[in-house]
Design goal:
It is a single chain. The chain has 196 residues and is of the alpha+beta class. The chain has three helices and five strands. The protein has a single domain, classed as Peptide deformylase (Peptide Deformylase, Alpha-Beta Complex), CATH 3.90.45.10. Helix content is 26%, strand content 24%. A five-stranded antiparallel sheet has the order 1-2-3-4-5, sandwiched between helices. A hairpin with a 5-residue loop joins β4 and β5. The protein is globular, with a radius of gyration of 16 Å. The N and C termini lie far apart (34 Å). It binds nickel (II) ion (NI). The site of nickel (II) ion has 5 residues, from α2.
């Protein structure tokens, strides 16, 4: 479907694992119009309701290269609000490694440590199509560096649980089954379950 006729949902609703949309590669945004900006505002409403620090469009079943962040909502580290919209984002010049315990609104009550790039340049467009660039460095205090990598993965159908080693995966296995059972009960479908 050409972008011009893309209809954003009237009321975006959070989807959880194992909804198959979470595994789809999202399509680039080519039209920067009021409908896009309205959708972004709605993403913030969903994220605030769910008490998240980031939310990607696929998490409300919209397979578009859009995510939002509000890194100052991090528990215990609250600061001046800094809501951001990231469209068609990419990472350049990744450098170093860092480890952080992540969670995801699409995986309620699951947390695990993930290895990420420590530092990189983020390149993206804002909701008006303007290109933006920023160096993010986790070791230098940019929690946003973690959030951006996590959300960017969502646009490629990659999920934080994909990074876990066997020991870590075994620790969340039971909780994943619970989410799979809940999804099957509500939809009658298995969804995109992780076999490991
Ligand atoms: Ni997530």
């Amino acid at each position: 479907m050409p972008d011009e006729t893309f209809i954003y949902p009237a009321e975006p609703v959070l989807v959880e694992y194992p909804h198959p949309v979470l595994r789809k590669k999202a399509a680039p945004v080519t039209v920067f119009d009021d409908a896009l900006r309205r959708f972004c505002r709605q993403l913030f409403a969903v994220m605030e309701l769910e008490k998240g620090v980031g939310l990607a469009a696929p998490q409300v079943a919209v397979s578009k290269r859009i995510f939002i962040t509000e890194h100052t909502r991090r528990k215990g580290h609250e600061g001046e609000p800094d809501p951001r919209v990231w469209i068609n984002p990419r990472i350049e010049d990744p450098d170093g490694e860092t480890v952080f315990e992540e969670g995801c609104l699409s995986f309620p009550a699951i947390y695990s440590k993930v290895i990420r790039h420590n530092r990189f340049t983020a390149v993206w467009q804002d909701e008006f199509g303007e290109e933006r660039r920023q160096v993010l460095d986790h070791a230098a205090g940019d929690f946003l560096a973690i959030v951006v990598q996590h959300e960017l993965d969502h646009l490629d159908g990659k999920l934080f649980v994909d990074y876990l080693n066997d020991l870590q995966f075994n620790q969340i296995r039971k909780r994943l089954r619970e989410l799979e059972d809940a999804y099957r009960k509500t939809t009658g479908r298995a969804g995109s379950v992780i076999r490991r």
